[in-house]
Amino acid sequence: MTKLIVVSTIFVCALGVLVWAGLGASMPVLMVSQIDSPAYAGGKVQLDGGKVARIDSYTPLVFTISPENDPSCTVRVRSSRLAPENFKVGIKVSLRGDYDRSAKEFTAYKISTQCPSRYEATKEVREGADGSAGNRGGEGGAPWKS
Predict the structure, then answer these.
(1) What is the DSSP letter of 7?
(2) Is 32 helix (H, G, I), strand (E, B) or coil?
(3) How does pLDDT run across 120-129, given as a tens digit for each residue?
(4) Helix locations, 59-133, DSSP H
(5) Is the pTM of this model over 0.90?
(6) Which domains does the chain have, with CATH numbers?
(7) From the DSSP assignment, how many helices (H) and strands (E) are in the chain?
(8) CA 50, CA 11: separation in Å to the nearest integer?
(9) What φ, ψ does residue 77 adopt, rounded to 5°?
(10) CA 17 to centroid of chain Cα atoms
(11) What would the pLDDT profile of 70-119 be if each residue is shown by its tens digit?
(12) DSSP string of 74-93?
C-alpha cells in the first residue's frame, strides 16, 4: 500500500511539472495584420500569415513582410540569423520573436519559410497530352517526383 502511494505521488508530481512547463512555454500566435492590434500587449509572439515583400539586407537580415491579402500593411523584420535556404520575395514566412511598437520593427529569432511540395504534380500530369485535366488512365507516369 505504501509503495502505491509513493508511486502515485511521484506520478502526479511529474504530470504537474509537465503541465506547468507546457503552459509556461505557450506563445500567442498572431497574423501579420493583427500585430498592431490592442490585443497584443507585447512579448514573444509567433507571427503567421505573411509573405516577404522586400529584402533590404542579408547581413544582418532585414526584410519587410506583408499579409497575403493586403500588401499595403507591412512590418519591418530584423534578425541576426541567416536567411533560410529558399528565402526570397513572395515566399510565405512564419516568424517567432518580439515586436517593438515604437520602432514598428519585429525582431525575429526564428524564421520559417514555406517549402515547395516535393509531390506537386507536373504540368504534363495535371493536363493530359491532349490538354484535358488529370491523368489519362495510367499514361504520363506518377504525379510525384522521387
Answers:
(1) H
(2) helix
(3) 555 555 555 5
(4) 123-126
(5) no
(6) 29-113 (2.40.50.140)
(7) 2, 6
(8) 43
(9) -125, 135
(10) 28
(11) 888 899 999 999 999 899 999 999 999 999 988 889 999 999 998 766 55
(12) -EEEEESSPPPTT--TT-EE
